[in-house]
Automatic annotation (TrEMBL):
Keywords: Membrane, Transmembrane, Transmembrane helix. This is Superoxide dismutase copper/zinc binding domain-containing protein. Coiled coil: none annotated. Gene3D superfamilies: Superoxide dismutase, copper/zinc binding domain (2.60.40.200). GO terms for biological process: superoxide metabolic process. PANTHER family: SUPEROXIDE DISMUTASE CU-ZN -RELATED. InterPro entries: SOD-like_Cu/Zn_dom_sf, SOD_Cu/Zn_/chaperone, SOD_Cu_Zn_dom.
Amino acid sequence: MALKSEQGSAGARLQSTEADRKMKGYQTIVIILIVAELMVAEAAVLAGGTRNKGKERVMHEGPKVLIKSTALTSNIVSRHKNSDLHEIYLAPYRYIEKEAKAVATFMEAAYFNNSGAVQGYVVLTQEAPAKGVTLRGNVRGLTPGKHGIRIHEFGDIRDHCRADRTGQVYNPYKVKMQESNIEVKEDGTAEFVLTDKTLTLVGGRSIIGRSIVIDQEPDDDFTRSGRATRRAVLCGVIGRAD
């Protein structure tokens, strides 16, 4: 029974992979056709248009294309059936045959004086580019309660997590961020699993080489607004692990 279940799961994965490849191929063909039409239109404009049977010069216009980045799934949208405006939504895509994996080992902030009491790590995985990144971590030595956790722009954690070195919270799509916290128990430990669909481990917007920071304060509207000082308690550089 278990063997049948595994075979069924393998078959489903193969079908899913084949479907993804077909969709990618379809999207590529449509984009090529749109770009080709744009090139023809541009060539006609550069050549001064064409002449109709009445020898009148006619200028041609190609389709209007709006390309946007998205943290979700790539898609092509026509505004209206009678409109030549097309929107192309491109997810951070790079085809990967296996799960992408990264890891970060936390370093404690300066005011702990290298006590070694505050430690932890996080493993980051991504099944497919459009599915986001899942973080599975374990920390100890923190005060009980909520602590904000975020990916920051830079992987420079010299001087024990100084904010001017790690930079701002990494938000490449300028989306409105939701709360991102871990819950520390009374004994100072926490095990957590978080998923962020706006993050990726592959492509130009990969978080590999950036830093992951856990703050003393919870992540909420007040701290995200910049009106409150955020104090890092742990930080680590995200490195590839596969």
